[in-house]
Amino acid sequence: MSQRLDAIRDCLEGVVPAIMATCSADGTPNVAYLSQTEYVDGQHVALSYQFFNTTRRNILENPNARLVVTHPHTAERYRLQLRYLRTETAGPLFERMKAKLAGIASHTGMSGVFRLLGSDVYRVFDVERVPGVALAPSPPPRANLLAALRATATRLASCRDLDALFNETLACLESQFDVRHAMLLLLDGSGSHLYTIASRGYAQSGVGSEIPLGQGVIGVAAREATPIRIGYMTLEYTYGRAIRAAAAANGLAAALETEIPLPGLAESASQLAVPIRAAGRLLGVLYVESTQNLRFGYDDEDALVALGGQLGAAMLALQGADAGEDIPAPEPAAGCADSAPVVVRHYAADDSVFLDDDYLIKGVAGSIFWALVRDHVETGRNTFSNRELRLDSRIRLPDLSDNLEARLILLRRRLNERGACVRLDKAGRGRLQLTATRPLTLVEVGPS
Amino acid sequence: MPEDSRSARGALIDAEHAAFLATAGVSISVGACNAERLPSVTRAIGCRVADDRSRVTVFVVVAQSREVLDDLRANSRIAVAFSEPHTHRTVQLKGEDAVAEALIDGDLRHIERYRDAFTAELGALGYSPLFTRTLLDCSGGEVVAVSFTPAAAFSQTPGPKAGTPLGDLR
């Protein structure tokens, strides 16, 4: 092979359509334009199968094919010699291509026409540069990705608790990768949805908002445990819309508004969601987006997948770890007896909690909060240990793998964002301190 | 039926299609294959259609098209796809008598006109004139004319009518 396939990945983004030649069993050639090509690995590409056409008939009769791909900036062309191997109609490769095709279709006015029926996988036998002049490559617009990854790795390795790890990850995405809109979502212990634990670059943080597996770019990346990357705006993968549709289908527009809106750019063009995996399981998704078309390429995807790996390992290492040093417990806020009480209402059905009429949180974080304020009101306790919370039968952790520390971070962030009259502060070595600035009146709704 | 609407002396393509092939800013790709049924492919840098529309000629850069030219020399079977980027309108012609010939008077003008049309077409999609000119550059390289009689002509525009013979679309 005169050129390495991984060196010409930019030609496989589907910006300039590829040209494909095939040949029938009786030796009749055929030429077709392809809107989508996908780099699979150093020896394989995948092409989108959208219609049963002559190309399709030919490769089933005769697996030999030729492909010309063009670099979108330099106009360099490469001719690939291919042999058809198989068609995938589900799974990570198919979902990656389906999402990307939705972006291409909407960008080229072909939504509703372009539809992925399968991902045709080809072995690449030769990559030949087509003789001819080329334009100079444009200088990289941003920092070298390996350097950015190294700097980020160094900073993440010095984090001593999950809270710092999440903050540092998003801060590094901005300072090192020039990514200005990002969010971090964790998989709920039930495995049915993800919840936002941190975000950066949005008017509302959206911490606590949820997205079901399989919905939008983020949900599909989680379900398939594969990166999903889109270069153009497409309604099909606009997660806000997907969420609203799912909510409507579930009849969730009930009397109580317990949906925290997902953060996100209304005019998102480029989206990239990478799974965070460690110890053989999915922990969450790191998501970045931009209003710029084609902002994220194969190299950005590689860098963020590597970052996701480190983030996952660090999360496992820090889960349950103490913060190292003792932080002196903050002084309880003085005299709140004369302020008006706040009504803390807990709905047992979904563990949703309201402070007066303001929705705070639901699910596991809701049940944690309810246990804390009950103990606080009934016994006057102010400090609690993570360990006792983990063993508390009132807190319904979906399973052992559920990350209690992350739930506490979520709860603390929600309380802080709402400027709530209850605060939770770290009190050193796996302990936390509850401070209420107003008297609490507890109301349980539904069976406890 | 007016003379123009179907064909001149049995030609498969009508005047409107001929104009699309020869004057629109379409991407032109040429395919062939060898005795082992291994396909070959190259990009063309212009097209001319005979006045009676019985013969279509595309221009290719020899250094970029060695395999295609070898295959055509061996079996004369050719496929050429013309695709307009902004509409996705695509037409494919097939022929069984393709021959490579020297350019004739006026061919360089066809090539220049094509370059201008394709530059304008891609310009509307955001590509710089320099990009398109680089893609179609033939400076210093030998260019030949590949001519054939269209034996079959299909619409290949993505959608339900893809694969329909051109005559049946009317």
Can you characterise this structure?
Chain A has helices spanning 54-61, 92-107, 145-157, 162-177, 216-224, 239-249, 298-318, 363-379, 386-391, 404-418; strands at 18-23, 29-34, 37-41, 44-49, 64-70, 77-88, 118-129, 182-187, 193-200, 210-212, 228-230, 270-278, 281-290, 342-347, 352-355, 358-361, 383-385, 422-426, 431-436, 440-445. Chain A is of the alpha+beta class. Chain A has a 7-stranded antiparallel sheet with strand order 2-1-5-6-7-4-3. Chain A has a 6-stranded antiparallel sheet with strand order 10-9-8-13-12-11, sandwiched between helices. In chain A, strand 18 and strand 19 form a beta hairpin. The longest helix of chain A has 21 residues, at 298-318. The radius of gyration of chain A is 26 Å and the shape is elongated. The N and C termini of chain A lie far apart (68 Å). The relative contact order of chain A is 0.10. Chain B is of the alpha+beta class and 170 residues long. Chain B is 26% helix and 28% strand. Chain B contains 4 helices and 9 strands. Chain B has helices spanning 15-23, 66-75, 107-124, 129-135, and strands at 27-33, 39-43, 47-49, 56-61, 78-83, 90-95, 99-101, 143-148, 150-155. In chain B, helix 3 crosses helix 4 (129-135). The two termini of chain B are 13 Å apart. The chains are: A alpha+beta (448), B alpha+beta (170). Chain A binds chain B through residues 17, 19-23, 25, 27-33, 35, 50-51, 53-54, 62, 64-68, 70, 73-75, 77, 79, 81, 108, 110, 113-114, 130-135, and chain B through 27, 29-33, 35-43, 61, 63-64, 75, 77-81, 83, 85, 88, 90, 92, 94, 130-132, 134-135, 137, 139, 141, 156, 158-159, 162-163.
Task: Provide a concise account of the structure shown.
The complex is a heterodimer of chains A (448) and B (170). Chain A has 448 residues and is α+β, with helices and mostly antiparallel strands.
